[in-house]
Amino acid sequence: MICKEAQPAECRGRLRAIQDTMDILSGKWKMTIIACLGFQKKRFMDLQREVEGIGPKMLAKELQELEINGLVQRTVSCTKPLTVEYHITEYGQTLRPVIHEMAVWGKQHRHRIMHTTS
């Protein structure tokens, strides 16, 4: 457990840090968007196609929040029509180990559930 062997102040600090992380990455879509951008920069419509089930308003909102938190950068190219691309920032790249571990855990969980309920 997080706090089993920790002192009360250390435990509160760890729980606060977890809450801070959850506040920034909360919601159904943010981690998926970051994971998609972790491979390469993408245009808005490409992201919308890859993140199944997300609507354009929600994608725009989530991208804006990720940009405000310094995890994603938006680049506008002066082409006709304008080209808007998004890419994960260097700071956003620090989430790679977290995303990797989530993917590992998710695969194990899916396997466990699929084989336990059969």
Distance between the termini: 30 Å
Strand content: 5-15%
CATH architecture assignment name = Orthogonal Bundle
Note the total helix count. Answer: 6
Largest sheet: 3 strands, antiparallel
CATH level-4 homologous superfamily: Winged helix-like DNA-binding domain superfamily/Winged helix DNA-binding domain
Largest sheet: spatial strand order: 1-3-2
Q: What's the CATH first level?
A: Mainly Alpha
Question: Could you characterize what this model shows?
Answer:
With 118 residues, the chain is mostly helical. It has one domain: Winged helix-like DNA-binding domain superfamily/Winged helix DNA-binding domain (Arc Repressor Mutant, subunit A, Orthogonal Bundle). Helix content is 60%, strand content 12%. The chain has helices spanning 8-25, 30-37, 44-50, 56-68, 90-93, 96-116, and strands spanning 42-43, 72-77, 83-88. Strand 2 and strand 3 (83-88) form a beta hairpin. The longest helix has 21 residues, at 96-116. The chain starts with 7 loop residues before the first helix and ends with a helix.
